[in-house]
Amino acid sequence: MGVTALAAIALTLTACGGPSKTDSGLKGSEGTVGQADINPQDASKVKDGGEFRWPVDQLPDNWNYNQLDGTNADGRRMIDTMMPNLYKQLPDSTIEVNKDYLDDVKLASSDPQVLEFKINSKAKWSDGKALSWEDFEAMWKSLNGTDKAYEVAGSTGYEDIEKVEKGATDQDVKVTFKKKFAEWKGIFSPLYPKAMSASAEEFNKGWADAPKITAGPFKIGTIDRTGKLVTVVRDPAWWGEKPKLEKITFRQVDRTALADALANGQIDFFDIGSSVDNFTRAKSMQGVTIRQAITPDYSHITFNGADSSILKDAKLRVALMRGIDTKVVAKALLGQMLKGDAQVTGNHFFLLGTKEYKDNSAVASFDKEAAKKQLDELGWKLEGETRKKDGKELVVRYVIPTPNPVSDQIAKLVQSQLKEIGAKVDIQAVPSTDFFKQFVNVGNFDMTGFRWLSSATPISDSKGIYSLDPAATNQNYGRIGSDEVNKLLEQANGELDDTKRAALANEADKKIWELGHQLPLYQLPGAVAIKSNVANMGAVAFANRPYDYIHMGFTE
């Protein structure tokens, strides 16, 4: 559940083989979603043991992924090493059952919709209790939106469930829906233990510092907030195939220091994202390979439509969007890395390379003269260099994380472009560690930018971003929406026919563009720089929920 937020552009989550080190550039987002580029190796060729050193932007603000502060991508990567993911996303964006946790799951009935889960009898929590139907029931009750004391990142799917019951045994779960929910393979994953949902206090704060109960191939070794690192180590209680790695160390590394950290052997890979500098550095490193695959990862600008923001008027937001040339931004960031043109994305649900993709951005497409005309019509008249209305200057506060050269570059490009239509952009750079919790999550911005990491269930994952719920923010940080969008998303999420569901989502997307909700900039090239001796890891395409923590390792 929930699209994952990544601090602005340059780190991530993913067709074709990656370029060799002598290659002049990366492929753009042309082609179709498909294979990963991970140096695939049979288990017998991967050594037993070793430590994989993984750079992150920040440590988790909450180890409960479903709590409002918990949806950060770096946190998800750590959580996935130790919590049950009931399904595995494959590189081509299909989904399969994770047999470590489930013997089977089936759609037992479609009207009413009924799911039947059979939990693997070997699956145990770290407190010794078996995974059971009660964990599913507790998770549904905490996430269905009925108790507003639970600060949830989204209630999609759970709000459509009528009841969760015990089947023939405690390991048999029967989930009955009151209304149909199409992308059901996105819910109950990661699964959390019943104890975490025991109270709103426990749900919201109980796991803020550390996970209390786990059930995965790894468990927490250390959480060192001062040293800014988390280690996970093999869990001897794990019932599945033994992981190749002894330990994974997630270390906070500033974006500006990634290339040096890889060159010095402090980390084993990094996400190139849209950093030309890091791409150039990586190309020249000995013992480092660049791997690439089409990625469900895109950079965007979120606008704030709350009453407290100068951008509360949808027409003003759309006018500003029309003053931003996303092709120029994409070319500036990616142009030196790509062989072809940098491609901008015109859809909030479907990414380039997927069969459902349609460019619905016409209403907000770049047109400087149209932008000026719209601002004039709205009463924002040019006085000197900046427009004014009712004596108030058109000054937009654009919040970015620092240090982050990519966010900085995007903000400055947008600042200069909007200056040309008479809007002044005040760039406020805030510490990366505070960026989500103190600014994005609480709507403390007029404009802000980061990356969304999409998934194989894009419509339900995005519902919390584009639906407007007066009682809960979910992931709609700019508080923008309409009854029409809510209704279309309800319909799409309840439509079991894939073609009809995609058509409804594209209808919703057109309305989202009209609202000036957020401006997608470009899709990431999906390239990583990684030590050449790392196996079964790299540019994983869609196979990031979870990453293959069991088989990744070193060839020598």
Major sheet characteristics = 6 strands, mixed
User: Approximately how much helix is present in the residues?
Assistant: 10-25%
CATH level 3 topology of the largest domain: Dipeptide-binding Protein, domain 3
**Cα end-to-end separation:** 37 Å
CATH class of the largest domain: Alpha Beta
Radius of gyration over C-alpha positions, nearest whole angstrom:
23 Å
- The CATH architecture of the largest domain can be named as Roll
CATH level 4 superfamily of the largest domain: Dipeptide-binding Protein, Domain 3
Shape: globular
- How many domains in all? 3
Counting DSSP E segments of at least 2 residues, the number of strands comes to 24
* Strand residue percentage: 15-25%
Count of DSSP helices? Answer: 13
Kindly report the average pLDDT value.
92
Helical/strand content category: alpha+beta
Low-confidence stretches: 7-24
InterPro entries: Peptide/Ni-bd (IPR030678), SBP_5 (IPR039424), SBP_5_dom (IPR000914)
Organism: Lentzea alba
Region (Disordered): 20-48
Protein name: ABC transporter family substrate-binding protein
Write the layout of secondary structure elements.
Blueprint: E1 4-7, E2 51-56, H1 73-79, E3 87-89, E4 95-97, E5 102-110, E6 113-119, H2 133-143, E7 161-166, E8 172-177, H3 200-206, E9 218-224, E10 229-234, E11 247-252, H4 258-263, E12 269-271, H5 276-283, E13 288-292, E14 297-303, H6 314-322, H7 326-334, H8 368-377, E15 381-383, E16 386-389, E17 392-393, E18 395-402, H9 405-419, E19 424-431, H10 432-440, E20 447-453, H11 458-466, H12 483-493, H13 498-514, E21 518-523, E22 527-531, E23 534-535, E24 553-554
Parallel strand pairs: 2-11, 18-19, 18-20
Antiparallel strand pairs: 1-20, 3-4, 5-6, 6-8, 7-8, 9-10, 10-11, 12-22, 13-22, 14-20, 14-21, 15-16, 16-17, 23-24
Helix pairs in contact: 6-8, 11-12, 12-13
